[in-house]
């Protein structure tokens, strides 16, 4: 999770987030190259005397027309690739439904018969030692590690948004509409998120906690909770 004075992204815990961070670094390098070139040309124009060669230079005009098009292609191709990867949902091992309410989440494991629970934020006065304030919940979402997970997101009252930054997941929860996305956790751990759509007075008090565990641990947890 994020910490104080952190300027970068959280550590990636899914293949999609790894791709997003790599594209972010790629775009920054392109922007750095553009800024460096523009600063160099500005400094050159200020220090050098203008000559007739720079007044009518069709070669230069051709270059500064084609070069931005090439830069846009270098940015568009990986961006479109990641966009299609984020929309791709291929035979998930587990389907999870998240329903946003004011101000808590309801989760339904649709592959199980009676596995449904509400997830509320733990108040600061009741928070166990070592847990994160405003981020810990009474019931975590437990998913198997290295398994494709499909999540269907909706809302029961107003707009919400189900977001986990370290997994690269952010899906709007809209009343009367089902949105879906998918993710794969690449390592065991606990991943924190929050509602990312202003949904009322207690918008900042409906966190999301996903716990990634080995498959055997998930099976034991699901059988215990559904029994």
TrEMBL record:
GO molecular function: copper ion binding; cytochrome-c oxidase activity; oxidoreductase activity
Every Cytochrome oxidase subunit II transmembrane region profile domain range: 1-90
Location in the cell: Mitochondrion inner membrane
InterPro entries: CcO_II, CcO_II-like_C, CcO_II_C, Copper_CuA, Cupredoxin, Cyt_c_oxidase_su2, Cyt_c_oxidase_su2_TM_dom, Cyt_c_oxidase_su2_TM_sf
Keyword terms, alphabetized: Copper, Electron transport, Magnesium, Membrane, Metal-binding, Mitochondrion, Mitochondrion inner membrane, Respiratory chain, Translocase, Transmembrane, Transmembrane helix, Transport
Catalytic activity: 4 Fe(II)-[cytochrome c] + O2 + 8 H(+)(in) = 4 Fe(III)-[cytochrome c] + 2 H2O + 4 H(+)(out)
Biological process annotations from GO: ATP synthesis coupled electron transport
Transmembrane stretches, start-end: 27-47, 62-84
Pfam family, one: COX2_TM
CC annotations in GO: mitochondrial inner membrane
Membrane-protein topology: Multi-pass membrane protein
Cofactor(s) it depends on: Cu cation
Residues annotated as domain Cytochrome oxidase subunit II copper A binding: 91-224
Cofactor: record remark: Binds a copper A center.
NCBIfam families, per the entry: CoxB
Function: Component of the cytochrome c oxidase, the last enzyme in the mitochondrial electron transport chain which drives oxidative phosphorylation. The respiratory chain contains 3 multisubunit complexes succinate dehydrogenase (complex II, CII), ubiquinol-cytochrome c oxidoreductase (cytochrome b-c1 complex, complex III, CIII) and cytochrome c oxidase (complex IV, CIV), that cooperate to transfer electrons derived from NADH and succinate to molecular oxygen, creating an electrochemical gradient over the inner membrane that drives transmembrane transport and the ATP synthase.
Family per similarity comment: Belongs to the cytochrome c oxidase subunit 2 family.
Protein name stated in the entry: Cytochrome c oxidase subunit 2
Lineage: Eukaryota, Metazoa, Chordata, Craniata, Vertebrata
Name of the coding gene: COX2
């Amino acid at each position: 999770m994020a910490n104080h004075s952190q300027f970068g992204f959280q550590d990636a815990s899914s293949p999609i987030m790894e791709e997003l961070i790599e594209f972010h670094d790629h775009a920054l390098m392109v922007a750095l190259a553009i800024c460096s070139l523009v600063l160099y040309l500005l400094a050159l124009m200020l220090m050098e005397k203008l000559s007739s060669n720079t007044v009518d230079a069709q070669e230069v005009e051709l270059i500064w027309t084609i070069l931005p098009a090439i830069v846009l292609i270098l940015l568009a191709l990986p961006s479109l690739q990641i966009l299609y990867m984020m929309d791709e949902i291929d035979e998930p091992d587990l389907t999870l439904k998240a329903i946003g309410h004011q101000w808590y989440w309801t989760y339904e494991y649709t592959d199980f018969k009676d596995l449904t629970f509400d997830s509320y934020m733990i108040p600061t006065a009741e928070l166990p030692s070592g847990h994160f304030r405003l981020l810990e919940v009474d019931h975590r979402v437990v998913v198997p590690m290295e398994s494709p997970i499909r999540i269907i997101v909706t809302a029961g009252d107003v707009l919400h948004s189900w977001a986990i930054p370290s997994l690269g997941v952010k899906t709007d929860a809209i009343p009367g509409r089902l949105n879906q996305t998918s993710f794969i956790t690449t390592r065991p751990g606990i991943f924190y998120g929050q509602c990312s759509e202003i949904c009322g007075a207690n918008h900042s008090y409906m966190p999301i906690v996903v716990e990634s565990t080995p498959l055997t641990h998930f099976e034991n947890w699901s059988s215990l909770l559904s029994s």
